[in-house]
Amino acid sequence: xxxxxxxxxxxxxxxxxxxxxxxxxxxxxxxxxxxxxxxxxxxxxxxxxxxxxxxxxxxxxxxxxxxxxxxxxxxxxxxxxxxxxxxxxxxxxxxxxxxx
Length: 100
Hints:
Layout: E1 2-9, E2 12-21, E3 24-30, E4 34-37, H1 43-48, E5 56-59, H2 66-71, E6 76-77, H3 79-82, H4 92-97
Parallel strand pairs: 4-5
Antiparallel strand pairs: 1-2, 2-3, 3-4, 5-6
């Protein structure tokens, strides 16, 4: 099952996406500038092979719900996210608010 819902954080619009797969759930929250995602996100790939795209993204591990993704500290972020002031250890929702 795929669930897509609007999500507002401090008055800013985002889209919450949850994809139920066998034995795992993919979670992401995005806007038109960037996104945060569960542990399935390969930040190294984005930084190395896709660096020229300037993808703004962060990864949180050990999360099972959108609410947990928003509250979890980011385990890794892309180089483009760092340029916006997003850093490892920052809560997901705080990182999203820098993606305006």
